[in-house]
Amino acid sequence: MPVKIYHDEDADVNIVRSKTVAFIGYGNQGRAQALNLRDSGVTNIIIGNIDDDYAKQAREDGFNPISIEEAVSQGDILMLLIPDEDQQTVWNEKIRKNIKPNSTLVVASGYNIAFNLLDLPDDMDAVMVAPRMIGAGVRDRYVQNIPYPCFVSVEKDVSGAALATCLSIACAIGATRGNGAVGSSCREEAGIDLFAEQALWPEIMAIFREGYNVLREAGFSDEAILFDMYLSKEPAEIFERAADEGFVKQLKYHSRTSQYGQLSTMNRNDGNEIREKFRRVLNDNILSGNFAKKWSDTKWAAEELAKEWKEVEKAPIVQADQRVRDVLKPDRKK
């Protein structure tokens, strides 16, 4: 069954214009979405943020940031746009006891709702409006009237109007233009996101790491290896072509030798080993909630992340990368 895709004509932007919208966080997504809402005619926007550089940016943008607690108590709509790993703590300490009755929670990441990390009031609607784009991209594309992909979902509908509110917000930030906003769920958004982070990209990075090791053992130079692998930005060009024209169809821009090498190798790799590894990551670590449970321990998370950074810096490809970059610096001493 095809998923539902929502367009401008499915949304009533006047719904969000009639509400007080409280942004919790003015960072990557917070700033972009607040500015887009304001440009769409939403006048009652409150920024709840600690007194930091983000609050300074909000003031420069013409907002008057207040404490998170104050913002929450006034918001008909709460845009919870702080990092995933901070949401549960901030929710429990600053948000939960100050929530205005019959309000709506909006998240841009499904993580905390998917893994039941937020204790939602009984009378609160919960929806997701999740741009598949960094905040700067959300803002730039809105200003240039260019569509961008977005996932939307209704996770809790007490009022009976949660979908209308969700689509009104999506429309006001420019997410229902063009191809429209794709109906999804917090579980789907979080699951796919975590899978990319814990399965797809680690496998790709490991392949590049071991590719470097093999080529270096064969006597090839760091400069030649790294430029051919990624410093030339050719992979970025390939991914852009794949997005625009198709995962496989982009191969038509490669030489016939390249086409044959890639297709013949891929077609004869049944992928069983990788598939089983991916299934374990998805089922045992992500969908089981095991990762979310561990990551909720912020002390453990900080220590583990620091340990992983320390470990990766030992990798030969990382050290080679730095050496090559130092040589290529335009202001290097001669």
UniProtKB/TrEMBL annotation:
The chain positions of domain KARI C-terminal knotted read: 185-331
Chain ranges of the KARI N-terminal Rossmann domain: 3-184
User: Which controlled-vocabulary keywords does the entry list?
Assistant: Amino-acid biosynthesis, Branched-chain amino acid biosynthesis, Isomerase, Magnesium, Metal-binding, Oxidoreductase
* InterPro entries associated with the record: 6-PGluconate_DH-like_C_sf, KARI, KARI_C, KARI_N, NAD(P)-bd_dom_sf
**Would you kindly state one Gene Ontology biological process term found in this protein's UniProt entry?**
L-valine biosynthetic process
Q: Which SUPFAM superfamilies match?
A: 6-phosphogluconate dehydrogenase C-terminal domain-like, NAD(P)-binding Rossmann-fold domains
* Segments crossing the lipid bilayer: none
Functional pathway:
Amino-acid biosynthesis; L-isoleucine biosynthesis; L-isoleucine from 2-oxobutanoate: step 2/4; Amino-acid biosynthesis; L-valine biosynthesis; L-valine from pyruvate: step 2/4
For Mg(2+) 1, which residues are the binding ones?
Answer: D193, E197
Q: Where does Mg(2+) 2 bind?
A: D193
Care to name a GO molecular-function term for this sequence? isomerase activity
The UniProt record lists the keyword Oxidoreductase:
yes
| Similarity-based family | Belongs to the ketol-acid reductoisomerase family.
The protein's matches in PANTHER family, at most eight in alphabetical order, are given as: KETOL-ACID REDUCTOISOMERASE, MITOCHONDRIAL
Q: What's the protein here called?
A: Acetohydroxy-acid reductoisomerase
Q: Gene for this protein? A: ilv3
